[in-house]
Amino acid sequence: MVLIMLTALETFEEVYVKVSLCFVVAGFVVAVLLMKYKFLYRKLGRDDVTGGKNKKEFERIAKDLIGGSGTYVLVYANIDRFKLINDDYGDSVGDMVLQKVQSIIDAELRWDEVSGRIMADNFGVLMRFNSIKMLEHRLARISEQIADLKDENGNHYGIILYYGVYVIEQGENDISAIMEYANLARRNISPSHMVPIGIYDERDRQRLSREKTLEMKMRKSLEQGHFIPYLQPKFELKGETVAGAEALVRWIDPEEGMIYPNEFIPLFESNGFVVDIDLYMFEEVCKMQEKWNQEGKPIVPVSVNLSRTHFEVPNFFEQYEKILEKYDLPPKTIEIELTESLFYNDLQSLNELVSHIHEVGLSCSIDDFGSGYSSLNMLKDVKVDALKLDRVFFASGDNDKRGRDIIQSVIQLAQALDLHTISEGVEERAQVDFLKEMDCDLIQGYVFAKPMPVTEFEKLAFGQR
Ligand code: C2E
Ligand code: MG
Ligand code: MG
């Protein structure tokens, strides 16, 4: 009996030891797994390009920090024209620059602050907030070091960071909304700060909610035909008769009435919907031209705008070709307006586009010439057919000799390169007379006519003939 009890006791002890061992091993395994998981987690939280924090990790930590005490500010930083660095130096140098920018920002931060790369050349920085002045000083310190970055030959890259600033209110914790506000604030950049800073204000909230409203109804509006092409006549200068038109989109909402493109085109450019609008407008103009042709009307070329957003889709012009195939149009009845800002980029792909446009029987022009940074030099490299002089040339009050000399030189240069010239935004009769002297080909401006519905344009262009 005693023996039996002893064996049972031994077995019990054995089991006890075994179970304890199991616990120890299991604990060990869990600890290893946890460490691995943490390592993996960290790895996942790291940005491939910069080695700093990625968006997810940044947002996770930022959310934790703002849940604590004290006031924070979210700074959304974007590198101005970063594309130029990639274009000039190649992607690997571009990546290295992003890496340096991240580490310069990180070095400025305290333990209870965080930063990470949000996407492309955008960084999020969560900082403690005392005053705008102090924030400016800290951002200026970052900007100075970044401006000082040099290439291997010792030349500065010339990097400028643009900051959008949103001061987070107590209790606010929706990090994606906070990021959106800070990003939006970059639009308010003013020269009154030490560095380019835009600060979020109440108008931004209203703008954001307005944009949301427009985005909610834009697709339906397109389906239901609430986007309407208006035509603004272009007048030739010899006889002052209608010789063409530009198709300009109008959003005629049943509840709101007319919404002008300045209110929605920039939004559609950022959300990509402008591509649908442009293709729609193009097809509307194809229909118009086919109808006029069938009715035996004289040819009046109509131009359409092509947003730079299209260039984000490879071979985007095929979509234009597909539409064009459906219609029977005389050549050169449609002109594609390429915005001037496209010309800062890759001239080769732009030239390929221009060749395509010509191959399918359309012509093309540079829109808003003079509004940005284009150089006269590029005119000889891209074989466009016409140059549209931006209305900055004709802004009232600038009608001095110097202004006129500039206009004259641009027109003469365009003529030497066999380009047609169209002056946009002309409002005064004196300017018309001057442009006549300069032998400018066409004028599109309120001095002659504003954009109008198609039926009204038809009366003006074909009515009296
Ligand atoms: P834009 O292509 O440069 O078009 C010319 C703009 O100048 C038009 O404004 C026109 O109404 C305005 N304008 C013409 N003459 C005068 C003048 O004498 N004085 C003044 N103050 N303004 C004049 P709108 O129709 O409001 O369009 C503004 C911009 O919106 C256009 O500038 C263009 O960039 C964009 N846009 C319009 N329709 C489309 C479209 O279908 N697709 C794309 N991508 N952009 C479009
Ligand atoms: Mg235009
Ligand atoms: Mg224009």
Q: How would you describe what is shown here?
A:
The strands form two sheets. An eight-stranded mixed beta barrel has the order 6-7-9-10-11-12-13-14, surrounded by four helices. A five-stranded mixed sheet has the order 2-3-1-4-5, with helices on both faces. It is elongated and about 110 Å long. It is 47% helix and 19% strand. It is α/β, with parallel strands linked by helices and 465 residues long. The structure holds ligand C2E and magnesium ion (2 copies).
Ordered list of secondary-structure elements with their pairings:
Blueprint: H1 2-44, H2 55-66, E1 72-79, H3 82-89, H4 91-108, E2 114-119, E3 122-128, H5 132-147, E4 161-167, H6 175-185, E5 197-199, H7 202-223, E6 227-236, E7 242-253, E8 257-259, H8 261-271, H9 274-294, E9 302-306, H10 317-325, E10 334-339, H11 347-359, E11 363-369, E12 386-389, H12 401-416, E13 420-424, H13 429-437, E14 442-444, E15 452-453, H14 454-462
Parallel strand pairs: 4-5, 7-9, 9-10, 10-11, 11-12, 12-13, 13-14
Antiparallel strand pairs: 1-3, 1-4, 2-3, 6-7, 6-14, 6-15, 7-8
Helix pairs in contact: 3-4, 4-5, 9-10
